[in-house]
C-alpha cells in the first residue's frame, strides 16, 4: 500500500445543491420539464400560435442590427456615435433616399459612425448542434395542440423540420477621426466578445455571434487626402432558418360526444332457451288486421301450443326454403329445424277482442 | 529666418530687386483688384488648445483659434470625388482639394503665417462656406516655379484637404 496523497479531498459533497434552481435542490430530476426550458419555449411562442415563428434572413439581419444598437453603442466625450440602423445593399436609391440623421451640409454621412455591412453570400451553417444531423427535410413532433370545433374535441399534431443552419458574415465598420473613439469602441467589442461569442435575440431564439477578425482600413497614408480611421470588425452570426411554409399540422385524435335518451324504466325480459334451460314459454298476440304469425327458428326445437285466447281455430304450417307445408291438425307438437319458420294462421271467435296464443318451445 | 542678410545679385544684369517688386505689385494688383478671391484663415492657437496627453488629439471644442483673418489668394479647387466609407456602401461626395497660391508679401502685410493644420474657409456661396485644413503649407518655395526668373520666391502654394464637420465647422 502506498501512502495516501494528502492533497486528495476527502470531504466531497456527494449531493451538492444546485445553485439558482430552487425547484431542483438536488439537480434536475429528469422527470419534469425544467423551468428555464419552459421559459425559452414561451419566448418562442409568445404573441403567436403554438408554432414557432419563421426565422429568415431578414430576421437574422434585424437581430444583428439590434445587437449593434443595443450592445455596441458607445459615446465619446458625452456624445454618442451614430449607428446606421439598416443593412446597406447595392440598391443606390435605398441609400440615396435615406436621410441620415447624422449628415452634413453636403448630405454626406457625418463621422464618426458605425455601419453594418452584410456579406451577400450566406453560407451553410457551422453551428455543430445543427450540422448535418438529420438528412432530408423530415418533420418532427413539435407540439400537440387541443382543438374544439364546437362539436368535436380533438388534438392536432404540429410537426416541423429541423432548422437549417446558416452562417452570415457581417462587417461592422467604425469610421471616425480620433484614436480615442477607436479605443472606446475596441474596448466595448473586446468586453462583449471576451468569451469569443455574444448572443442576439431573434424571435425567442438566442443566436450566437462570433468575433472573427479585426482589420484596419484607415485612410492615413495619403497626405493630400482627408484622413480618417476605418476599422473593420468581422462578425459571424451562426443562425438558422425556420420556414413556416415547411410546418405540418395533422389531426391526431378526435373524440365525438354523443347523447342518447333512453327509457329509464326497468323491464324484465323472458330468458331465452339454453341447453341448461331448454324450455321457453311465450305468448304472441294478434290483431284483427294481422291474424298470421311467422316465427323463424335459429335452432332445432319442438313447439307445442299450450293455450289460446279468443281463437276458435288455427292452422299451423312449417316454412322450409320459402315453401310452407300445412301440418295435420291432429299433431299438437311440431318439430322445427334450424332455418325453418313456424307459421300460424288463426280464426278469431269475436273479432275486435284481444287474441293470443301461448307456445312452449323446447331446445333440442 | 537668419538675421544675416545676403544680397541677391543673380540675374542682375537684366532683373533686380526693383523689377522684382514691380512684378510682385503688378501680380498682387491683378489678384486683388481683378480676381479678388477672398478666403478666411483660422490659425490654431497651439498653446491654448487642449489636447490629449497620449495622442495629442483634440475634439472640436478643445481647439482654440486666433482671430480669423481674411486674405486674398489664387484659388484652385479640384473636382469632387465620389467615394464610399465601406467598400462601395455609405457613399459620400467629397469636395476636391483646395490649392491656393498666396503672395508672401500678402501674409507679411497681414502679419500672419499659414501652418500645417490651420483651417481655411472658402465661401462657396453667400450662405455656405466650405472648410479645409492645410495639408501642405508650401513653406518650402524655393523651386523655379515659385520664383521670377530664379531671382526670389514670391508666393507659396498651399494645399488644403476638406474637413468633416465634427473636426471643424467655423467659429
In short:
Chain A is mainly β and 364 residues long.
Please, could you describe this protein's structure?
The complex is a heterodimer of chains A (364) and B (171). Chain A has helices spanning 35-45, 57-71, 92-96, 179-192; strands spanning 75-76, 79-80, 82-83, 113-118, 123-124, 139-148, 152-161, 164-176, 197-202, 205-216, 229-241, 248-256, 279-286, 292-296, 301-309, 311-320, 323-326, 333-336, 341-348, 355-363. Chain A is mostly beta strands and 364 residues long. Chain A has 2 domains: 35-250, STM4215-like (2-Layer Sandwich); 279-363, Jelly Rolls. With 171 residues, chain B is an alpha+beta fold. Chain B has helices at residues 17-35, 104-110, and strands at residues 38-42, 69-72, 74-77, 81-86, 89-94, 98-103, 119-125, 128-136, 155-162. In chain B, a hairpin with a 2-residue loop joins strand 4 (81-86) and strand 5. The model of chain B has no long low-confidence stretch (mean pLDDT 90). Classes of the chains: A mainly beta (364), B alpha+beta (171). Chain A binds chain B through residues 77, 84, 88, 90, 95, 104-106, 108-113, 115, 117, 171, 173, 175, 177-180, 223-228, 230, and chain B through 52, 55, 57, 59, 85-95, 97, 128, 135-136, 159, 161-167.
Task: Characterize the overall form of chain B.
Answer: globular
Q: How helix-rich are the residues of chain A, as a percent range?
A: 10-25%
SSE pattern of chain A, N- to C-terminal? HHEEEHEEEEEHEEEEEEEEEEEE
**How many distinct domains of chain B?**
1
Note the main attributes of this structure.
heterodimer; A: 364 residues; mainly beta; STM4215-like; Jelly Rolls; 2 domains; 7-stranded mixed sheet; 4-stranded antiparallel sheet; 12% helix; elongated; B: alpha+beta; 7-stranded antiparallel sheet; two-stranded antiparallel ribbon; globular
Helix-strand blueprint:
The complex is a heterodimer of chains A (about 375) and B (about 170).
Chain A: H1 35-45, H2 57-71, E1 75-76, E2 79-80, E3 82-83, H3 92-96, E4 113-118, E5 123-124, E6 139-148, E7 152-161, E8 164-176, H4 179-192, E9 197-202, E10 205-216, E11 229-241, E12 248-256, E13 279-286, E14 292-296, E15 301-309, E16 311-320, E17 323-326, E18 333-336, E19 341-348, E20 355-363
Parallel strand pairs in A: 3-4
Antiparallel strand pairs in A: 1-2, 4-8, 5-8, 6-7, 7-12, 8-11, 9-10, 10-11, 13-20, 14-19, 15-18, 15-20, 16-17, 16-19
Chain B: H1 17-35, E1 38-42, E2 69-72, E3 74-77, E4 81-86, E5 89-94, E6 98-103, H2 104-110, E7 119-125, E8 128-136, E9 155-162
Antiparallel strand pairs in B: 1-2, 1-7, 3-6, 4-5, 6-9, 7-8, 8-9
Amino acid at each position: 500500500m502506498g501512502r495516501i496523497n494528502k492533497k486528495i479531498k476527502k470531504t466531497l459533497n456527494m449531493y451538492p445543491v444546485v445553485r439558482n434552481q430552487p425547484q431542483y435542490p438536488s439537480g434536475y430530476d429528469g422527470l419534469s420539464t425544467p423551468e428555464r426550458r419552459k421559459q425559452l419555449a414561451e419566448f418562442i411562442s409568445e404573441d403567436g400560435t403554438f408554432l414557432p415563428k419563421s426565422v429568415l434572413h431578414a430576421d437574422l439581419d434585424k437581430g444583428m442590427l439590434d445587437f449593434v444598437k443595443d450592445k455596441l453603442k458607445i459615446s465619446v466625450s458625452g456624445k454618442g456615435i451614430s449607428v446606421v440602423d439598416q443593412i446597406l445593399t447595392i440598391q443606390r436609391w435605398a441609400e440615396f433616399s435615406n436621410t441620415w440623421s447624422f449628415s452634413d451640409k453636403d448630405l454626406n454621412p457625418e463621422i464618426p459612425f458605425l455601419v453594418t455591412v452584410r456579406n451577400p453570400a450566406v453560407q451553410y451553417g457551422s453551428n455543430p448542434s445543427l450540422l448535418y444531423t438529420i438528412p432530408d427535410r423530415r418533420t418532427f413532433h413539435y407540439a400537440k395542440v387541443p382543438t374544439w370545433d364546437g362539436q368535436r374535441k380533438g388534438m392536432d399534431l404540429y410537426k416541423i423540420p429541423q432548422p437549417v443552419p446558416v452562417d452570415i458574415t457581417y462587417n461592422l465598420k467604425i469610421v471616425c477621426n480620433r484614436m480615442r473613439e477607436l479605443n472606446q469602441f475596441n474596448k466595448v467589442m473586446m468586453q462583449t466578445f471576451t468569451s469569443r461569442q455574444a448572443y442576439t435575440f431573434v424571435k425567442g431564439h438566442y443566436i450566437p455571434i462570433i468575433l472573427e477578425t479585426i482589420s484596419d482600413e484607415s485612410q492615413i497614408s495619403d497626405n493630400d487626402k482627408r484622413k480618417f480611421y476605418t476599422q473593420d470588425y468581422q462578425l459571424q452570426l451562426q443562425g438558422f432558418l425556420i420556414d413556416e411554409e415547411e410546418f405540418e399540422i395533422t389531426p391526431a385524435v378526435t373524440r365525438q360526444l354523443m347523447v342518447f335518451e333512453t327509457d329509464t324504466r326497468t323491464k324484465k325480459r323472458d330468458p331465452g332457451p339454453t341447453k341448461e334451460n331448454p324450455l321457453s314459454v311465450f305468448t304472441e298476440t294478434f290483431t284483427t288486421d294481422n291474424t298470421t304469425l311467422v316465427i323463424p327458428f335459429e335452432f332445432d326445437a319442438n313447439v307445442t301450443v299450450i293455450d289460446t285466447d279468443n281463437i276458435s281455430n288455427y292452422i299451423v304450417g312449417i316454412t322450409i326454403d320459402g315453401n310452407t307445408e300445412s301440418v295435420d291438425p291432429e299433431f299438437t307438437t311440431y318439430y322445427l329445424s334450424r332455418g325453418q319458420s313456424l307459421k300460424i294462421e288463426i280464426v278469431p271467435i269475436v273479432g275486435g277482442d284481444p287474441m293470443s296464443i301461448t307456445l312452449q318451445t323446447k331446445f333440442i | 529666418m537668419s538675421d544675416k542678410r545676403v544680397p541677391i545679385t543673380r540675374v542682375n544684369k537684366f532683373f533686380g530687386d526693383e523689377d522684382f517688386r514691380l512684378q510682385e505689385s503688378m501680380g498682387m494688383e491683378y489678384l486683388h483688384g481683378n480676381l479678388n478671391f477672398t478666403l478666411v484663415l483660422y490659425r490654431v492657437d497651439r498653446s491654448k488648445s487642449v489636447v490629449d496627453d497620449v495622442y495629442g488629439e483634440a475634439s472640436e471644442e478643445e481647439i482654440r483659434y486666433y482671430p480669423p483673418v481674411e486674405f486674398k489668394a489664387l484659388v484652385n479647387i479640384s473636382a469632387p470625388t465620389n467615394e464610399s466609407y465601406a467598400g462601395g456602401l455609405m457613399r459620400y461626395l467629397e469636395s476636391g482639394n483646395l490649392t491656393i497660391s498666396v503672395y508672401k508679401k500678402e501674409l507679411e502685410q497681414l502679419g500672419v503665417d499659414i501652418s500645417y493644420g490651420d483651417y481655411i474657409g472658402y465661401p462657396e456661396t453667400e450662405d455656405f462656406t466650405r472648410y479645409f485644413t492645410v495639408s501642405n503649407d508650401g513653406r518650402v518655395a524655393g523651386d523655379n516655379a515659385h520664383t521670377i526668373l530664379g531671382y526670389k520666391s514670391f508666393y507659396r502654394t498651399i494645399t488644403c484637404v476638406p474637413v468633416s464637420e465634427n473636426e471643424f465647422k467655423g467659429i
